[in-house]
Design brief:
- The complex is a heterotrimer of chains A (299), B (396) and C (305).
- By secondary structure, chain A is an all-alpha fold.
- Helices cover 71% and strands 0% of the residues of chain A.
- In chain A, helix 4 crosses helix 11.
- Chain A is globular and about 70 Å long.
- With 305 residues, chain C is an all-alpha fold.
- The longest helix of chain C has 30 residues.
- The chains are: A mainly alpha (299), B alpha+beta (396), C mainly alpha (305).
Chain lengths: 299, 396, 305
């Protein structure tokens, strides 16, 4: 790919202010080559294979006819998918439902609190604005292990026993900042004249909010909730410090890693993966076909 | 089919309005009265305070000082949603999550009117968009969106309809077409229209009364033709159309006219058309009133003449030809000449004289537009300053 | 969608005057963060200065001002200096590797794939796909794929591409590999959102003004995507420095790959040596804040915060 590097014929440096012969030709050639050709697509394909290998591995091994630990391939079976909750008296399933519950509750709490902060930050000016922005940013810039240890030390000092509640409190805390950032971007992209138009058309403030502001923010709020849930669902480090004897799905895997993970864990992870991917793909492609339809009608 | 409007438009009165924003004054001591049922245009460059005036009337901003009366009722302390006023926003501000019909019905629903959808459909019919009622705003063209915004406002039969450069985003052809339609609708429904624009042609075509605004105050107000033929200030003379201006000392005064000495030439203006009658006076004339001569014109008491000068530029504009003539001691003069004589053939470098009727001359009240307050009320500077204060707030 | 975080659209600044409503909106969330983010940090500082309770059981401490808990971290015999070094070394290495791997991916999706919106969406979904499957399971999958008995390793050894005694799991290589892998999506997404908005005409203008492809990239593309690079490296480096899953013995690590996170976990949850764990946590946080602050200042992207 060195076609663009054709040097001046005799190696004489052109004097400043004077164009070397063939300069025009060179610029055209550069433009055609650019960064890419076949190299970039090939690289991208390889990179995606690398990214997706562990997912495929996890999925394939959910069909392994394994005994206790799921390391070597012993043959194909659907049995793990049909009897997920049998192994270890359903410990995998309990951990999974715990994770769903924790994710659900902390998502709701973080989304409500975070949306309120985002509205205040994007719509009002007040003295402590930059201090509050910093307070929102700091939890995202703090390693999870510090967040986890800090909360655990506080619960210890106050004498709060670690259980489901402490996990939910912890998850709401670290999801909150992500909600604020996501929703704030949405509020900032909302045209304030739309709200003015609402006021102009006889809507009192609370109607302006529920009929105009809120529906327009909803996609952002939903995105924030989705992000929040996936962060909570997959969190291990903070959970590990604040869970006591309660098991979540990631914690179950971490503890079981030393003695071998049953294939049922792969089944649950694969099912969650397929579910999430279907949702995201549907959302993405329906949005795109809607846009195309709009473009066609408008044009 | 126009909607059957029960009410008529109301008059609007602004008394001693001041509006200060942090760092600058947008409006200084504004008094204004708009008659019920009229089409009133506020014309001015960006940053002159015309949009702020509109937002004050709509209730989207509160004045620092002064009163706002609609139909004789003081609404100064009333909130936007409680005022019998509707706005057609520059960006249209159509609600993207509602259908066209729901957009139009929005105001009616808030006021719990009977037969909301019937009225909304009738309003859409008025702007000839009833066939698109179920579409989303994003699926409409710019001109269609503009009409929906108009329907959404007039369906409420507001006492006063505010138009904030509603045609600004349209291309020229559509703009001209919408101007005529807007005027027709105003006549049909008999509402009071307050139209804000920086397009002088738009203001002159549509409005019964035009107020030219500059630096937070009204410079001159009147019927479009009167404003054009007899501007009172340098700003109006230059903002509303183009003008040739000459400044000099008054050298002769008669019963009906005064004459000034402009760079050695004597120019006369009727006393009735001059704001000042002694001392240094600026007079002017519109470029299309001028005639170009290839030989020195015979002296005529009814005509002002200047020359000889040299043509420095000729540009052909279809309906007319524009000449720039350089006159020693007076600078350049602009002449618009109708293309009646294709063989006229004045080319750059030609020696010419120009003349015009004394009756077409006007005398102005000011000499150069003296800044009324600090000369920083231009939009770009306001924006820059606003950005700075915002930044300071965010950081501090 | 998860990646919505990284796509701020056109923005309208319209702050109004402060009001009671703003206070009402802020209060619950700010109180929450105060109670579950700020006071825990204070608690952590206090814990880091505790002394063991005289005649107390394991895990019982009294509040004091025992500054020695910090100096003990650097004790040459049983201090944690190697762990601290390892943490930041691994994190830095993984961040650089993730940036090198991610930039071309993001460039392809954000710039080259613009002509095919369907492909662009699909690739984007594939980038975030790893988020939807437990990262512990993904890491375990690599452990198994890189273990001595796996078909990958035995295969490579069979065709002599690997020395017969080569060994991966438990080595620093495996830990850095795991961290890099796990944070590629965090690096790719902000790069993508930046590159997606890159005006190609600027690259063409560069080429038109006699810049070689390399110079166009270095002088135009990279500076224009600096905000994405900074966001991506921060999103990778901060969690990577505190990570302890990859380095854990049950995952990709071994006895010689332990990072600060592992030590904090062991001290807090197993040994119940809370002061040591707290002191290490505070140290980790302070170092990260200093590094991040200097980095952001140097790259001139303070606006990002």
């Amino acid at each position: 790919m060195s076609g663009g590097q054709a040097a001046t014929p005799d190696g004489v440096a052109p004097s400043p202010g004077m164009l070397p012969p063939g300069a025009a030709v060179r610029s055209i050639r550069h433009r055609r080559i650019g960064l890419g050709g076949w190299l970039l697509p090939t690289y991208t394909v390889i990179a995606f294979v690398f990214l997706l290998v562990p997912i495929v591995y996890t999925f394939v091994f959910s069909f392994n006819d394994s005994l206790k630990s799921n390391i070597s391939w012993r043959g194909f079976t659907f049995e793990k998918w049909t009897n997920v909750c049998v192994v270890e008296n359903g410990a995998v399933c309990t951990a999974f439902t715990n994770s769903l519950l924790i994710g659900g509750v902390s998502t709701i709490a973080a989304t409500v609190l975070g949306t309120m902060i985002a509205l205040a930050l994007a719509r009002y000016k007040f003295g402590a604005r930059s201090a509050i922005s910093l307070l929102i940013f700091l939890p995202m810039a703090t390693p999870e292990v510090v967040l986890g240890a800090g909360l655990a030390s506080q619960f210890l000092a106050v004498g709060v026993p670690k259980d489901m509640l402490t996990i939910i409190l912890a998850h709401t805390m670290f999801c909150l900042s992500f909600v604020v950032v996501t929703v704030k971007a949405r509020v900032a992209s909302l045209d304030p004249t739309l709200e003015e138009a609402g006021r102009d058309l006889y809507a009192p403030p609370w109607q302006v909010f529920w009929r105009i502001t809120f529906p327009l923010l909803l996609p952002g709020i939903l995105a924030a909730a989705l992000l929040s849930f996936s962060l909570s669902f997959d969190d291990f480090i903070i959970t590990n410090f604040n869970s006591g004897s309660v098991n979540t799905f990631p914690k179950y895997i971490y503890v079981a890693a030393s003695r071998g993970i049953p294939a049922e864990a792969n089944v649950i992870a694969s099912a969650v993966f397929i579910f999430a991917i279907v949702i995201v793909l549907t959302a993405q492609f329906s949005k795109q076909s809607r846009e195309r339809r709009l473009a066609k009608r408008a044009g | 089919m126009p909607i059957d409007f029960a009410e008529r438009g109301a008059d609007l009165e602004l008394v001693g309005i001041h509006k200060r924003f942090p760092g600058f004054t947008a409006i200084e001591n504004l008094d204004l009265k708009i008659e019920a049922g009229s089409f009133f245009a506020l014309l001015g460059p960006s940053g002159c305070g015309k949009t702020t005036t509109l937002r004050l009337v709509a209730g989207l901003e509160a004045p620092t000082r002064g009163r706002i009366l609609i139909g004789g009722t003081d609404v100064t302390d009333t909130k936007a949603h409680e005022r019998p006023v509707n706005t057609v926003f520059q960006s249209y501000a159509l609600f993207p999550h509602m259908s066209v019909l729901e957009n139009v019905a929005f105001g009616l629903r808030r006021r719990k009117v009977a037969d909301v959808l019937g009225l909304a459909r009738a309003a859409l019919k008025l702007v000839e968009l009833d066939h698109l009622a179920q579409r989303r705003p994003a699926q409409l063209s710019g001109g269609q969106q503009q009409r929906v915004a108009l329907a959404r406002a007039i369906v409420n039969r507001p006492a006063l309809l505010l138009l904030d450069e509603p045609l600004g985003a349209l291309d020229l052809k559509l703009r001209r077409q919408m101007q005529l339609e807007l005027k027709k609708i105003q006549l049909d429904v008999g509402l009071t229209f307050l139209h804000v624009t920086h397009d002088q042609e738009e203001a002159m075509t549509m409005a019964d009364t035009v107020a030219v605004m500059n630096k937070g105050a009204i410079e001159q107000m009147g019927a479009p033709r009167a404003l054009y033929e007899l501007p009172r200030t340098v700003f109006v003379a230059n903002f509303l159309g183009q003008s040739n201006l000459f400044t000099g000392e008054v050298v002769a005064t008669s019963d009906t006219a005064i004459s000034i000495d402009a760079g050695g030439s004597k120019l006369t203006v009727p006393t009735a058309r001059a704001e000042r009658h002694r001392g240094r006076v600026t007079i002017g004339v519109r470029p299309e009133k001028l005639t170009v001569h290839r030989t020195a014109p015979a002296p005529d008491a009814d005509r002002n003449a200047l020359g000889p000068g040299r043509v420095s530029d000729v540009s052909f504009a279809g309906v007319s030809t524009q000449y720039t003539v350089e006159l020693a001691g007076l600078g350049s003069v602009l002449v618009f000449e109708q293309n009646l004589d294709p063989a006229m053939g004045v080319s750059p470098g030609t020696e010419v004289w120009v003349s015009w009727e004394v009756a077409h001359t006007f005398g102005l009240a000011d000499e150069a537009s003296e800044p009324r307050f600090v000369d920083d009320t231009r939009t770009s500077e306001i924006a820059a300053r606003r950005r700075e204060t915002l930044k300071a707030e965010l950081e501090g | 969608m998860a990646f919505a975080v990284f796509t701020p659209a056109e923005t309208h600044e319209a702050p109004k005057k402060s009001s009671k409503l703003a206070l009402l909106l802020l209060l619950p969330g700010v109180l929450y963060l105060g109670l579950f983010f700020l006071t825990p940090l204070v608690s952590l500082v206090l814990t880091s200065l505790q002394v063991p309770r005289p005649d107390g059981d394991v895990g019982q401490y009294d509040y004091a001002f025992n500054w020695q808990n910090y100096t003990a971290l650097f004790d040459p015999d049983d201090g944690y200096f190697p762990h601290i070094l390892r943490s930041f070394g691994y994190a830095l290495l993984a961040t650089v590797l993730a940036l090198l791997i991610s930039y071309p991916i993001a460039y392809f999706i954000g710039v080259k794939a613009r002509k095919w919106p369907m492909l662009q969406s699909l690739l984007l979904v594939l980038v975030i796909a790893p988020f939807f499957i437990s990262f512990l399971l993904r890491t375990l999958a690599w452990k198994q794929l890189l273990s001595d008995e796996s078909f990958v390793i035995t295969g490579l050894k069979a065709v002599s591409l690997l020395a017969p005694d080569a060994h991966f799991t438990g080595t620093p290589f495996a830990v850095v590999f795991g961290i890099t892998y796990n944070f590629i999506p965090f690096m790719t997404l902000p790069l993508y959102t930046n590159l997606e908005r890159l005006d190609i005409r600027m690259l063409e203008a560069g080429a038109d003004l006699y810049a070689s492809p390399f110079h166009v990239f270095r002088k135009i593309t990279v500076p224009l995507t600096m905000p994405g690079i900074v966001a991506g490296t921060l999103l990778t480096f901060i969690p990577a420095a505190g990570d302890y899953v990859n380095a854990s013995r049950d995952f990709l690590g071994g006895p010689d790959t332990q990072m600060i996170g592992n030590v904090i976990e062991a001290n807090f949850l197993v040994l119940e040596n809370y002061p040591a764990a707290a002191a290490l946590s505070i140290l980790l946080m302070v170092v990260i804040l200093v590094l991040v602050g200097a980095y952001v200042k140097r790259s001139g992207t303070e606006d990002l915060l």
